[in-house]
Amino acid sequence: MAAPSAVPGPVPSAVPGPTPSAAPSPAPHTAASAAADTAFRSALDVVRAVEPRVADAIGAEIEDQRASLKLIASENYASPAVLLAMGNWLSDKYAEGTVGRRFYAGCRNVDTVEALAAEHARELFGADHAYVQPHSGIDANLTAFWAVLSQRVESPALARAGVRNVNDLTEQDWAELRRDLGNQRMLGMSLDAGGHLTHGFRPNISGKMFEQRSYGTDPATGLLDYDAIRAAAREFRPLILVAGYSAYPRRVNFRLMREIADEVGATLMVDMAHFAGLVAGKVLTGDFDPVAHAQIVTTTTHKSLRGPRGGMVLCNEELAEHVDRGCPLVLGGPPSHVMAAKAVAFAEARRPEFRQYAQQVVDNAQALAEGLLRRGTRLVTGGTDNHLVLADVSGHGLTGRQAEAALLDSGVVTNRNAVPQDPNGAWYTSGVRIGTPALTTRGLGTAEMDEIADLIDTVLRATAPATTADGRPSKAQYRLDAGVREAVTKRAAELLAGFPLYPGVDLV
Ligand SMILES: *Cc1c(COP(=O)(O)O)cnc(C)c1O
């Protein structure tokens, strides 16, 4: 291990300035081209002339991102082409409806970008249909849930009543349909096993819509237990079986999940918000490719997929007409400028370099996992085969909250996360989630991941819980050795100096 990165990242340069744009680097945008630097500088000047504090905050953000080891598993760096495709006149256009069927006039340019985004998405993922309007992951999930309800509950009700439109139902039939829509079941992954709030949990609207039950992971191995999921599905008989996660470090066998869904008459929905980039980059294939097995797949576009902040739904032909009614069902006018940026991002993801990127994300996560294990930190499931590692910090005598804060003090940005059956609950937690998509984009490879494992280990060893007034260890307060904090901050900065981020943009 500790082999040099397979991804030729941006050329480390001591002299900030334009980088030759001819370099065939898979991550050229991390060392932005002179044209992009100029564009960002000019854009900020225009903003500064109206509200300088906003321009300053934007400039400070790139400074912060340059200076921190960004290990938040859901974050990335979108390319200048993606970012710039969002800041323009497409934002001003209303375009409710779908391509060629708009409720507004003058939508030909929106039609162009939406059709392109959908076409790239279908090709990239091998999907029958792509709906690129959702503004975010949660909107994509709402669209998908309601598309399934529309297909499986509303359409049969309309057929029974002999009408085509809900407006033509009698008051009694309408009341009955509303009751039926609100009386459906969903089976999803439990939050502490790595599931997501939008998969039927009470604080989210999905939990108020559906009667939900969740499946967890095997307490001994931390892995999904498909026999247990099958047994739960047989007993609960959900309308929708949801697979997908935010904090599970292993692959999911979607072929088996589909088998389970079919057996109980459920629709399989996969939320690949976190790992869409690994699907696009062909790291997750065969049984592990959700699009090949699920009737409907949702995603964000800004996480490992490295596009603009947004969402998307992919589905089969039968669900397409229902998904396309996302607006007006749960969405308003589509963000046309973001659809343009999605088209750009998907075009990037169709390049061969993106496959190298996706493989490097996983190689990096595995190098990080090995580095942590070797130094004595326990990992949930003992390792990873995707883009994230879930470290259990209870062996260091810390809560996830303390570990997250001590790491942040030292320039290492992660986020705390519950581990299965977490004794500290969802707020303090016992885990830290560490992801590699962003730093891989920045050009870091497996050797740097081992160095990062050492930084993390060094901080955790130098951190101890503070003592509360009644003499017990605090779950929130901690003491971090100041010398260690300074040394790690310095090492993190030195590491990042080799991987400049927009070196030609000096905004503050
Ligand atoms: C991030 C995430 C979402 C929500 O995405 P937003 O764009 O923040 O709304 C939904 N599902 C999963 C599994 C996620 O990880």
TrEMBL record:
Pathway entry: One-carbon metabolism; tetrahydrofolate interconversion; Amino-acid biosynthesis; glycine biosynthesis; glycine from L-serine: step 1/1
Catalytic activity: (6R)-5,10-methylene-5,6,7,8-tetrahydrofolate + glycine + H2O = (6S)-5,6,7,8-tetrahydrofolate + L-serine
A Pfam family per the record: SHMT
Segment forming the signal sequence: none
Record flagged with keyword Transferase: yes
EC number: 2.1.2.1
Recorded superkingdom: Bacteria
Post-translational modification N6-(pyridoxal phosphate)lysine, affected residues: 303
Enzyme class: transferase
NCBIfam families to which the protein is assigned, alphabetical: PRK00011.1, PRK13580.1
Function per UniProt: Catalyzes the reversible interconversion of serine and glycine with tetrahydrofolate (THF) serving as the one-carbon carrier. This reaction serves as the major source of one-carbon groups required for the biosynthesis of purines, thymidylate, methionine, and other important biomolecules. Also exhibits THF-independent aldolase activity toward beta-hydroxyamino acids, producing glycine and aldehydes, via a retro-aldol mechanism.
Protein name per Swiss-Prot or TrEMBL: Serine hydroxymethyltransferase
Lineage, uppermost ranks: Bacteria, Bacillati, Actinomycetota, Actinomycetes, Kitasatosporales
